[in-house]
Amino acid sequence: MTPTARRTALLWVARHAPAIALALMFLGPLVFIALTALMTDRQALTSDLWPHTWNWGNFAEIFEKAPLLTWIRNTLLYSVLATAFMLVSSIPVAYALARFRFRGRRLAFLLVITMMMLPPQVVAVPIYLIWARFHLTGTLWPLILPMLLGDAFSIFLLRQFLVTIPREYSDAAKVDGCGEFRTLVRVVLPMARPAIAAVALFQFFYCWNDYYGPLLYAGTDLDNWTLSLGLAAFRSVHRVQWNLTMAATLLAMAPVIIVFFFAQKVFIEGVKLTGVK
User: What sections of the protein cross the membrane (predicted)?
Assistant: First the structure.
């Protein structure tokens, strides 16, 4: 390496030192999990950080010792349906709050913000009793069906983005004969893709990592366990086999990391633009 190239590299490292330190801080636990997942059960209990042998069979073994495919299926069902229902119900509400002028609009928006600040544990008991009367406890439907009524956080973010779209576009569509629904579908939604992607990823990640909801409603039925619930039980059973626990954890984290890796650009853009008024 020439002195000029070395100087350029050192300047780049010095300029990005805080970002490099933060990246190492966040990547450190992930690397530790990956390396432990490839160790033997005995080595995983030692202070060694590098595997003596690469035990790729650990990933196959966890499928034999736990119904991982069932947990993945339930988690996908919960995450995908809840996200789809949230988008179908939240987008029209956010559009109405952003574009329509009606009596009580400010009060409705205030109620949305209030629901964002309401902890779910406060209403857990009465909501549980309601679902118990419909005989849906023991399943994931009490977590999926409420998304048909909208999500306060998603409505807030979508509304903040929709108010930034100039009204001239929707007015031009109405002049051409489009109704409100057609204007929403043909004009507004294509322009709101970053915000829609952002709220969809937020909801998907929340459902994928949710532990409290499945524990409350599906904790008594093993066939409806999700990954988060199953991993907690798997760790309790295999508490001395940290290599298997880390392998199962890595498999549970992989889909979320892959989705965010491919959608990070639109996700960041949507989060950034939803804060602009």
Answer: 20-40, 76-97, 109-131, 143-162, 183-206, 244-263
CATH classification of 82-226+262-273 is 1.20.120.530, yes or no? Answer: no
SS3 label, residue 220? coil
CA distances from 184 to 99, 198, 277 (A): 10, 18, 20
User: What does the domain layout of the chain look like in residue ranges?
Assistant: 82-226+262-273
Give the tens place of pLDDT for each residue, 209-239.
999 999 999 888 888 999 999 888 887 776 7
b/e string for 30-53 if b means 16 or more Cβ within 10 A? eeebebbbbbeeebbeeeeeebee
Q: What's the chain's length in residues?
A: 277
Alpha-carbon gap, residue 106 to 101, rounded angstroms: 10
Q: How many CB atoms lie within 10 A of CB 221?
A: 13
* Residue-wise pLDDT tens digits, 53-78: 888 888 888 888 888 899 999 999 99
With the CA atoms of 36, 253, 227 and 199 taken in that order, what torsion angle do they form, in degrees rounded to the nearest 10? 160
- Nearest Cα to 116, choosing from 204, 199, 215? 199
The answer, yes or no, to whether residue 256 has pLDDT greater than 60, is: yes
Alpha helices (H) along the chain: 3-15, 17-37, 57-65, 68-99, 105-116, 124-133, 141-144, 152-162, 167-175, 180-183, 189-191, 193-209, 212-218, 227-237, 242-273
The Cα–Cα gap between 38 and 36 comes to 5
